[in-house]
Each structure stands twice: as C-alpha cells, then as structure tokens.
Design brief:
The complex is a heterodimer of chains A (337) and B (257).
Chain A (H helix, E strand, L loop, with lengths): L2 E4 L10 H10 L11 H8 L5 E4 L9 H9 L5 E5 L4 H8 L3 E6 L12 H8 L4 E4 L2 H13 L3 E4 L6 H4 L4 E4 L6 E6 L5 E9 L5 E2 L7 H7 L2 E9 L2 H6 L4 E3 L6 E4 L17 H10 L3 H13 L4 H7 L2 H12 L2 H5 L8
Chain B lengths: L5 H11 L6 E3 L4 H12 L5 E3 L4 E2 L21 E2 L2 H10 L4 E4 L3 E2 L5 E2 L2 E2 L8 E2 L6 H7 L2 E6 L24 H5 L6 E7 L2 E5 L6 E6 L5 H6 L6 E8 L5 H11 L10
Helix pairs in contact in B: 1-2, 2-7, 3-4
The chains are: A alpha/beta (337), B alpha/beta (257).
C-alpha cells in the first residue's frame, strides 16, 4: 500500500491486533458477580502509568466517582484519551494525574469557559500531547473494537492537526483516494457510567451513546459505575437494551448520582453552580488546593462529596431541572409542542 | 424598523441560509439559535444534529453542552458520535457551524493553541473537538463570529480545521472530499463569502451603519469585495419575535449581543 506523510506525534498505545488478541484470549469470560467499591476498583485496575479513557461526553454521563478516587489515591503518570473531555479532564489535571494525552477536546468546558488547571497542565509541558479530532478518536476506538489495526477515514487531511497526530496518509488500494489511516486505540482501562447494570456487568444506557459502545469493546479492562444495580432477570427481559455485555466488564459499582455534577439523561441535569465554582477556584492555585482538600482529598467517598454539595435536596432540584418540572410548576407547559 | 443587537442580527442572517429539508450539525450558542429560528420560519424540515449523537430534538431550551440531554429531548434518534460523523463522511450532512480563536483569508481555523512551541504553547485551547471532522466532511461550513484584527489574522498559529487551505484546488489536492468547504462567515460587521477563483474571503454584504473602512480596519488581511456589494437585510419583526419569545426567552445567547 502506498503511504504518504506520517504525523509527528507519538503513538501512546500499541495498535498491534495480535498482541491485543493475546490479551483478550486470557480475559475471563465467566459470568461471576463483579460488584466492588470505587476504591478497590481504582487500586486494582489503575496503577500509575495506566492509559485510561472515560465514557460519556465531558460533563454528561461521566463517572465522577472514579475520577475523584483516581485523584484521591494520587495516581501519577496516567495517559488519557482526551475524547470530548471537559469536567473529566479538569478533575484529572487538577489532581496532577496525567502526563500523556491523545487530544481531541481538552481544557475547555464548552460554553462555560476554559479550565485554568487544565491549561496549566497543557501549557507547562507537564502533559505530552498528540493531536487528533473527536471523530478520529471515536474511530480509533472503533478500529480496536473491530479488532483491526487501523481504519481509513477522510478527516484531518491538509492540517496541522494531522501533522501533530500519529496518523499516516495512505492511498486507497481500490480507488486511489487519499485517506488517513487511524491506528486502533486499545485503552488499558475504560471508565463508564451507565443507568443500570446487573452484578455481572451487563449494562443498559439511556439516551445518546457518544462513543461508549466502541470504547467498552476497545478497552482491555472496563470499570462500570451505575446509577442502579438491577436484578439479572431485568437484563434478560429486554435484551435489546443491553449496551455492554458482562464479559467486557471487570468491575461494577453502584453509585447513585455518579455523574454529578455532570448531567445524567433522564435522571438529573448538570449542577452549573458547582461547575462554575470549579472554574472560579482554579484562577488561584491556593484556592484550588483548598477546594480539592475539601471536596476530594478530605472526603472518604463520593457519598460524602454529594453531602457537601447539598445532598438529596440538591439532587431533587437537579432532577426537577432535567425533567423541566420547574417550568411545568410555573404553568409554562408545552415547549415547542 | 425594529431595534436589534449584533447577536440578534448575526443569528437572523445565519438562519436565512439554512434551506428547508436540509441537515445541519450545530454546537451550542448562536449556531443552535440560528437553526432553531430557521426551523420556525424558513425551514420547518431542517434536521438538526449534534455531534455527540442527538438527532432532531424539539429543543425545550438552549443546550449547555452538545452532549447534554436537551440535544435529544423529544428527538428522532438518540444515536452516537460515530453515527453522526459517518453520516457526514457519507455526504448526508449539508451544513455545519464552527467557531475559533483565529481565522485566515481562506477560512482555515485555529482552535488549538497560541504560540510557536507545540508542547509548551502560550495558550492551549481545546483543540479540534469535532470541528476538523465537520469542516472536512459537511458540504458547507459557516461561522458566526465577532470580527477583529486579532481573530481575522494573516497567519494562523496552528491550522486546526481546514478551510480552503492555500486556495483553489488545495482541499481536493489534500484529499478532502470535493465540493466541500467554507460557505459564509457571518460577523458583527458583514457577511463574507468566498471568491470562486481564489477561494479568498469576499465581503458580500455590509451591515446597516457599518462602513467598508471599518470592516477592513478590523481585518488583519486584505478582503475582496463583491461587485454587487449590498447592505445586509436587518432582522424582521417576525424573526425577532420568534428569536426572543421562543428560541432564546432567557436571553442566554442574544443577551451577549
């Protein structure tokens, strides 16, 4: 196959599919209970240096509990798939946990602004970066999920994004069309928050999937946090709803409100006040340190964090926002009916 | 003539370019407002898509994130990012809207960094997100942006997202799908298209009360001017009513005008 220019960026993961197959060959397929705690899952599956990828979309359906625990256990030198990351990137960089990143979207919290802590990490040289795009990382997960070493696509061509990536330009062997070969990305660990899971790790997700179907299949290990543990029989009653089958999953933890302060579709909306507070304290390193002491290092688990953030009453308000109940209560029904 | 602010003007101008029965990938903010306005007046069958996987929501309010639950509220499909991007790559998506820290005369966009040391930039911005993907794959790319010399710059610090690259034929030579590229740049001063021959920015209409000199003074490179240079049509009363009462009643976006 004719190959063209190669991106200058470093490939942080191994795209070799036969080595991946050797790993997956020995991965247990036993349908055994995998319920554990957030602390144990992070201790066991995320040693320093691990390459992690988070599910969801930045501050939507993320596993905040696991991200906090990574910071609390002071994990170091992690590599990170910066695919649609916003609050997740902010937490990990505030904790000083990351030293390599495949970047598609980092540092920003969309319209809310840029994270100073994340900027510091990425501007100081503390984090080594290779550049990609959201679709590129989504398709790198897809290549890995398919078990092929690369996928040909039509993005990044002609840009510095391509030049700073680790992709290679190729020519289509059938048509001669110029394409970009994206290397498969097998993360060591995927961290995904779902609506419902059984004790074995069969998972149901409501709403958009973002890239999580491919991510769960691409990752060597999968840590699941779930709003609710459900009886296995509920999975069998509705097999159409199973997004992630148990044999991909290594740990299951029930964490109600586990995406807080992010949005969880059909459960609760994002806590914009708390996210604004994060952005504010980051302006001053001492304030950020005090904030992290209070909300992450100083609490024993995610439940204590939720209590500090207003507990059940705050969660009730965010649920009302998600369901637009506040509007109905004011008599403003029928938006764009 | 009704009173309006710059943001309202930009949103109304953008909305008029969205054809009925077409597809558009939008982000949050002004592009989303433009699409919602277009649906209510000009393009009831405009299909609005969000890169995280939302198809055709009946938006109850402005989304905060392109992946939040509003982006598929009463929608047609709660899909996925690869699904959306593959519709774009297959040629089924007509429009997209982008923003950025810097833009040059060919419509190339920088949203990655300011500075010259890639691993230690002066300012690190988010990066491409979906911008490079959408500008590579959707048929027509539009921007809604304030116009000033810092933003409209002769040389980008980093080409995150392709416009016409170095001019006519450059996208095709790079391997990007033929027939795609920047379409309109809607600023607070004027509406800019792209010259057929050079693929450089060409001003098509000047907003009411704005002069040519003012526009050139706010641009870091030489603009081309359309032979039939006109005045931008201000918002109609109907557009403003829809925009203020239905699209953005809490003034999240138009309050920034």
């Amino acid at each position: 196959m004719v190959t063209g220019p190669r991106g200058e960026g470093r490939l942080f993961t191994d795209p070799d599919v036969d080595r991946a197959r050797e790993f997956f060959r020995q991965k247990s397929r036993k349908m055994v209970p995998k319920v554990t705690t957030v602390r144990e899952a992070v201790e066991r599956f995320i040693p320093d240096g691990t390459y992690i990828a988070t599910g969801g979309f930045g501050a939507n359906r993320i596993s905040t509990a696991v991200l906090h625990e990574i910071v609390r256990q002071r994990k170091r030198n992690l590599a990170f798939a910066g695919h649609t990351t916003t609050h997740d990137c902010q937490i990990l960089t505030a904790g000083g946990c990351v030293n390599r990143c495949d970047v598609a979207y980092v540092v920003g919290l969309e319209a809310r602004g840029l994270s100073r802590a994340a900027r510091r990490a990425f501007e100081s040289g503390e984090v080594e970066v290779t550049e990609w795009t959201n679709a590129a990382l989504a398709w790198r997960f897809k290549a890995a999920a398919m078990g092929v070493p690369f996928l040909p696509v039509r993005v990044m061509l002609g840009t510095d994004t391509m030049r700073k990536s680790a992709a290679v330009e190729i020519e289509c062997p059938f048509t001669g069309t110029k394409l970009v070969a994206l290397p498969a990305l097998f993360p060591d660990v995927a961290i995904i928050h779902v609506h419902r899971a059984d004790v074995y790790g069969n998972c149901q997700i409501d709403g958009i999937m973002i890239s999580d179907l491919d991510l769960a299949r691409a990752a060597k290990r999968v840590i699941i946090t779930t709003e609710r543990l459900i009886p296995h029989e509920e999975i069998r009653q509705n097999p159409n709803a199973t997004a992630i089958p148990y044999f991909l999953v290594d740990a299951v933890i029930e964490v109600p409100y586990g995406s807080y302060p992010g949005n969880m579709p059909y459960e609760y909306f994002s806590d914009e006040d708390h996210l604004r507070l994060w952005l504010e304290v980051e302006r001053d390193e001492a304030k950020l340190a005090a904030f992290l002491d209070k909300y992450i290092y100083g609490v024993k688990d995610f439940t204590e964090y939720l209590e500090l953030c207003g507990g059940i009453e705050r969660m009730r308000q965010l649920r009302a926002t998600e369901y637009l109940l506040d509007r109905e209560a004011r008599g403003e029904g029928g938006p764009y009916a | 003539m009704p009173e309006y602010n710059k943001m309202e003007l930009m949103i109304c101008l953008a909305a008029r370019y969205l054809e009925d029965g077409s597809t558009v990938v939008v982000g949050t903010g002004a592009p989303c407002a433009a699409a919602m306005l277009a649906q209510r007046i000009y393009a009831p069958d405009l299909m609005v898509l969000f890169e995280a996987g939302g198809f055709g929501p009946l938006l109850p309010s402005m989304p905060i994130s392109v992946g939040d639950s509003r982006t598929f509220y009463r929608g047609l499909v709660a899909g996925s990012m690869p699904d959306i991007m593959e519709h774009c790559q297959r040629g089924m998506v007509d429009y997209t809207f982008l923003g950025g820290a810097q833009i040059d005369m060919y419509g190339n966009i920088n949203s990655t960094l300011i500075g010259s040391d890639y691993q230690r930039p002066q300012v690190r911005f988010p990066g491409s997100g979906g911008a490079n993907d959408l500008a590579s794959l959707c048929w027509r790319t539009m921007m809604i942006t304030p116009q000033d010399r810092r933003r409209f710059t002769p040389k980008l610090d980093f080409i995150t997202t392709p416009g016409y690259l170095t001019g006519k034929g450059a996208r095709e030579a790079a391997g990007l799908p033929p027939g795609t590229g920047p379409y309109k740049v809607i600023t607070d001063l004027c509406v800019i298209g792209f010259d057929e021959e050079t693929k450089r920015m060409k001003v098509e209409s000047v907003h009411p009360g704005v002069t040519r000199e003012q526009i050139q003074a706010n641009t870091g490179f030489e603009l081309l001017w359309a032979d039939d240079l006109g005045t931008s049509e201000p918002p109609t009363e109907e557009e403003l009513r829809m925009l203020r009462q239905e699209v953005d009643p809490y003034r999240y976006v138009i309050g920034r005008g």
